[in-house]
Amino acid sequence: MPETIPADSVGLVSPKTQHFDTPLALDSGASLDSYELCYETYGELNAARDNAVLICHALSGDHHAAGYHNKSDQKSGWWDNCIGPGKPLDTDRFFVVCPNNLGGCGGSTGPLSIRPDIGNPYGPDFPIVTVRDWVESQSRLADVLGIERWAAVMGGSLGGMQALQWAIQYPDRIRHALLIAAAPKLSTQNIAFNEIARHAIRSDPDFHEGHYYEHKVVPERGLMLARMVGHITYLSDDVLHAKFGRELHDGKINFDFGIDFQIESYLRYQGESFVGRFDANTYLLMTKSLDYFDPAQAYGDSLTAAVANCKSKFLVISFSSDWRFSPARSRTVVRALLDGDHDVSYVDVESELGHDSFLLPIPQYHKLLRAYFARVEIGR
Amino acid sequence: MNVESLRAEQVLIADWIAEGSRVLDLGCGDGALLAKLHASKRVTGYGIEIDPDNIVACIERGVNVIHSNLDEGLCDFDEGSFDYVIMTQTVQAMRFPHLLIDEILRIGREGIVTFPNMGHWKCRAQFLLGRMPVTRHLPNTWYDTPNIHMCTVKDFDELCQAEHIEVLERAAVDSQHRAVIGMRMLPNLLAEIAIYRIKRKA
Predict the structure, then answer these.
(1) Sign of torsion, CA B178 B183 B184 B187?
(2) Tally of CB atoms within 10 A around A126
(3) Which end of chain A has a smaller Cβ tally under 10 Å, C or N?
(4) How confident is the prediction for chain B on average, in pLDDT?
């Protein structure tokens, strides 16, 4: 944390935990009898209870979206540049809620949690949860917090998919949906990349079919490889070139199979730091949730039909160099919304930074969010 | 474009548009026209815009805006999905104006198109002096201009004829910023901005 907390930071924050005892029936047919959601909030819920904004996180995110956990915290929350007093999502006006998704490894019930009936972690037996299941669990959190209707639900990537699902699943409980760098379903190529990641994890000798906790090991190599592959898809060719080019790590080619180029060193660093903070079973589960997401499926594969009953207004944002969820994928959602005469604005933000752009303070992007949130009406 | 002329143009367009219509505004700029039509005529719809700052301005006004390049067509929109498709001061900057006008009349029941009239006497005077016109409405030099397909009132009439387009109404804004409705007298000479309401001939 910086010496003094910047004026536009939400400052020191503490996660909260909410326990749920009502069983949650999952898409897979399984059920969670009880579970916990770990979440953070920033700003104050107003008396009208109409200024709440739900932030949905992406694959490797968690509930810590903004601020610092303690004074020695090196890093602020993952969307700190966007959320805070006077920031695009202004916590002086809005009450922001960010939960860790079920099946995650940030504190909500997931593979790392102790299964009540056997006293051991769920591990690979944690049921696969879908985007619909997440929305269901988040709606229960909204109930507990006394939020009948979100002013907005916003997310990037897999988070944007949750925002879309919210608009479809609970049309009366959401006024604005902000879908950023998202897609209405994964492409074949997206699923292929996810399978590489899963294969890397599952083929690690330390994986033990997901029961690695009992063996007191972590499938580090597999998880690292999964992250390395994933990381390349989050960036554009141009930004990798600009950052590293063909720069050599030691200033010379070594004629061996170690690290020659800076990009190799960078990727290893990304992989290694991920291993320390993320659980392999959660990674498997999250990639499956991504693969399964396809709200049009239940409507005869018509996205237009899927969004027909939405009542919220939409802001859809893509980034020009995003090849993981390309602008064309966002346009598919926009087209479906236009078919139904829904209120929608769409912007493709010029950016060299690839899919990761949604996490970065790109001026045009933040101007759009700021302008949009300024129009979101709230009471007192 | 000059503010008074713009206002005169917007007043004329607002007069032509029926209450509660669905409108698509191609090249909607900062969304001023749509915001005005929404306030005065309960119009709903979308603007299409390519400029990033204009898009932010639209969102600030609460106007639905779709970021798109008009030269790439309008395939996101279904046939007959709007009461009016409006294109103000944009047709002359398009790569294929006739194809876009075709698209306008596919998507919209009617089209409203406005453009700076190259036949205006000030333009003609500059031609007589042997130069490309530079006027209030056409402030760009020939080598640095978005306006690559200039035309006159007469030219546009001929295009409509050739493309089986019916001109429902025609108006102009003259150099005094007055809306010269009817334009019976010498429109091609006096109109600085020409405004057309068109539809596909049955």
Answers:
(1) positive
(2) 23
(3) C
(4) 91
